[in-house]
Amino acid sequence: MDKFLLSYLEKKYEVREGTQLYMIAEKLLQRLLQGSVCIPVEGDLANSKAIGKKGDIRPLILDEGNLYIQRYFVYQTRILKRIEEMKIHIITGGPGTGKTTSLAEILKNRLNEKILLAAPTGKAAIRMRESLSKQGITLEAKTLHRLLGYKNSLEADIIAIDECSMIDLSMMSKLLDAVPNNCDLYLLGDKNQLASVEAGSVFADICRKYKHICKELKINYRAKDAPGIEKLSKQILENSVENFDNENVHYCENYKFSSWYENLFKAENYEEALKFLKTFQILCATKVGKNGTERINKELCDLARKEKARFTPIIIMENNYQLNLFNGDVGVKDKEYAYFYVGENEIKSFSILTLPAHEAAFAITIHKSQGSEYERVAVVYPDKEMENENEHVFLTKELLYTAITRAKKECFILGNKEVLANSCKKEIFRASGIK
Fold this sequence. Notes:
Layout: H1 2-13, H2 20-33, E1 38-40, E2 51-52, E3 60-63, E4 66-69, H3 70-85, E5 87-93, H4 99-108, E6 115-119, H5 122-133, E7 141-143, H6 144-148, E8 158-161, H7 169-178, E9 184-189, H8 202-209, E10 214-217, H9 227-238, E11 249-252, H10 257-260, H11 262-265, H12 270-279, E12 280-284, H13 293-306, E13 312-316, E14 330-333, E15 337-341, E16 347-351, E17 358-360, E18 363-365, E19 374-380, H14 389-392, H15 397-404, E20 407-414, H16 417-425
Parallel strand pairs: 2-3, 5-9, 5-10, 6-7, 6-8, 8-9, 11-20, 12-18, 12-19, 19-20
Antiparallel strand pairs: 1-4, 3-4, 13-14, 13-17, 14-15, 15-16
Helix pairs in contact: 1-2, 3-7, 9-15, 15-16
């Protein structure tokens, strides 16, 4: 997109390389890659024909001192307009605060109406369905992509979307456009979690701006099982961490990943192997480097071969609607088949030859773990600050908070203490006009 926009500005509007506007456009594109949808600008840029105001069709839009790429400004404008027109309700809170329980209480009285459920990923949709089913509500939950499909409008009395922190600006705009005005839309999520991979931190922005429609749940009903995780997660958000050790969290100087996977290596059947995946997961801040997913997965794949393990974990890297497998789904494979949970206890097998793109999943990134929970996690941070500034910016308190709160019982933290401490001091900054 960056090359196309800059080339278009040069050819259509004679914005030459090295000029003020060209450099501002470059900065805007760079900030877009880092998640911001606009940048503040000073001075008079209104004279350029490449820049328009609200309602204009120009490649760049200047509004209230912020410069946008036009389509992102359109997404933002649509979101703000639709929120004012709709019956929208927001439920936010950390893990274990009862977001799904609150939704269940609402749905129980309206089961005779048309209800649609969805979440950004297949894994999150399954968890949403499982959570509601435990409270006596049996409804299908789809991925957002599948819910929306090619439809311009959805037909429902109630639509509920879980894990909304993962929704980017363009998807939120598409969702709100598809919801009818007379429908009750419930958005559930943790506003303190990582923002979406693509541009925007739209759920957190909406929670800040529209407090009157936002119900924040603060009591963690699971805290009695792991009070140390609850305590550390609050300290991370408040930047008041004194150490990374307590009754449920353990900082490790030296560690041997192989010891954590002994039970998986010994698994005799796929049921045992899949059950193990609910008990433990390595979560890495980065893909590259000594403490990244690539090296750890290679090391453990080599060890699995040496141990003659029958099953190894894999993660799906792209959506496949025909097979009902989605980006982020984690399962196990042997030499011929792969096995995935498609419900709380329902398992489906697939031929290895038919699988969409996939990778080893002894270790996955923290981003990929959103929408998941495990009994125990090992959070792996780099040994030193990232040299690549674009990666360094993601070592924030939201990243560490998200990783810690994936664990229900116990969390191990590995990595440089200074890097971890610095992470707690940094917040995700994503500029937007949703204020």
